[in-house]
Amino acid sequence: MNINYDIVVLGAGNAGLISALKLSKEGKKVLLIDNNSIPGGIATSTLKGQFEFENSLQKLTGMGSDDNKGIVRKIFDEFEINEKIEWIKLTEGYKLIKVGNTKEEYLIPLGVDEFIKKMEEYVPESKDKLSEFFELAKEIYNAMNYVYETNNIDYDYIKKTYPNFANTASYTLETVLKKLKLPTLLEQIITSYWINFGTSSMNLNFAHYISEFYKFIAFGGVIPKNRSFEISSTIEKLIRDSGADIWFNEEVIKINIENNQVKSVITKSGKTIFTNHLICNSSLNNICGKLIDYNSIPKDMIKLTNTRQLGLRAFNLSLGLNKSASELGIKNYMYYVYNSLDSNIELENIKKIDNYTMIITCLNVINPEASKDGTCILNATLYYSDDCYDKIFNETNYLKMEEKIQNKIIEHIENALEINIKEFIEEFNFNTPITYSKYNNANDGCIYGYLESNNDSILSRVLNKDEESLINGLRVCGSASYYGHSFESTYKNGYEIAIKTLKDIEKGE
């Protein structure tokens, strides 16, 4: 029996879900395939005892405000997703903690005026400098939105309307900040958001970083009250209601290409699905290395795959504690914990096994109903790069090393937050790079997509995005695509790839 679809979408992560929803709403015959039993990829939750742990979402940006809607809100409004989800707005940014010989703590508030006021406490007489900085940041943010939302970019318009963007777009974050001559502490606080990109100020593109930093400070973020799985399951239902098919617990093992055109895919269960349009929520490494015969891959596609580096890896530990956040002394929702406030030094630190670099969240601080009274949920993500942990893991010591790293993370939490949690742990859930590799087909456990550098920045990828479509009918979405990782990026990317696929169909390509 032949199975035919207009479009097949591989992977029910954020990008794949939005792509399938957009395409099915446009009346196309769509099949969404995922090798897991539920939607969302790592954007889901895990139940342990009386606790529901969030696996990945710390904040969702891109919602904007009522009078200045962000891209995620626009997408969600189109499909009436917003009205189906109860959102909780972040009341503050994060607390920045430097551990080590001398401990330092800085609260990063939301709101430009609030940020400037708080920074005045840390660096007196910095108001004028910061006001100038945020004027520049706002221009860069608006310019980046123009680039994202415009198909045929008018460079003369950019030079006239956003002159500072035109002058700084090709430079690194470090280069431009040095030119601005901000006090060292201010520069370190402004660059402390680097962990969300996975590389340091000497590598990051200035325009991309500053636009994202400004967006977070100016417009804040939200989380869904019932975890990110609430978003994924809501979108899944909308996809089914629009007439598309979803196959869970199924895996595509081969993509058939003839004359540089997608023809069909073959699943692990032996099904052949015929289609000329395929959207892969996966990396080029998986697509080229596992799914397509080598002789069918264009040389430029192999070259592109080989030139990109993988981003950060991570361990994630969720703890269900039988004490409330206030009883434990936890006052903030989100903490960024570093060994050094210099992002370039910290990037080197995360290549070492004894690094402290992590983001800690406590859901109950902004969502008291996240768990029962008298309890709370802590989530800690420990980041690393290169192969520092690969060298110590083997088949015989895996479980022992898991336990050692769990204890290490707990000790780091206690040290950074100056609290005691060991004796109050009731439940826990631990994800390792191997978990991400098996569950989400993440190369080497990498959850950050491809490394963002100034030479291969999100800006440069977006400006050259059409050059990455090298096989007719095949488009790539998700964290390994041109917008990079993060919830906002993957929703935005999935939606845009769906529109490009619709245009491919209209043109008969």
Tell me what the structure shows.
By secondary structure, the chain is of the alpha/beta class. Helices cover 39% and strands 19% of the residues. It is built from 19 helices and 22 strands. It has a 7-stranded mixed β-sheet. Helix 1 packs parallel to helix 10 (228-241), helix 1 (14-25) runs parallel beside helix 19 and helix 3 runs antiparallel to helix 4. The two termini are 26 Å apart.
Itemize the secondary structure elements and their pairings:
Layout (H helix, E strand, L loop, with lengths): L2 E2 L2 E4 L3 H12 L4 E4 L11 E4 L2 E4 L9 E2 L2 E2 L1 H8 L8 E3 L4 E5 L5 E5 L3 H11 L4 H23 L5 H7 L1 H6 L4 H8 L3 H7 L15 H14 L2 E3 L3 H14 L3 E3 L4 E7 L2 E7 L4 E3 L3 E3 L3 H8 L7 H9 L5 E9 L3 H4 L5 E5 L4 H7 L8 E5 H4 L9 E9 L13 H20 L7 E7 L1 H8 L17 H6 L10 E3 L10 H20 L3
Helix pairs in contact: 1-10, 1-19, 3-4, 4-9, 7-9
Shape: globular
Distance between the termini: 26 Å
Radius of gyration: 23 Å
Order of strands, main sheet, comes to 10-9-18-19-20-17-21
Average pLDDT confidence is: 94
Oligomeric state of the chains in view: single chain
User: What class, by secondary structure content?
Assistant: alpha/beta
Give descriptors for this structure.
509 residues; 5-stranded parallel β-sheet; 7-stranded mixed β-sheet; globular; alpha/beta
Structure summarized in a few sentences:
39% of the residues lie in helices and 19% in strands.
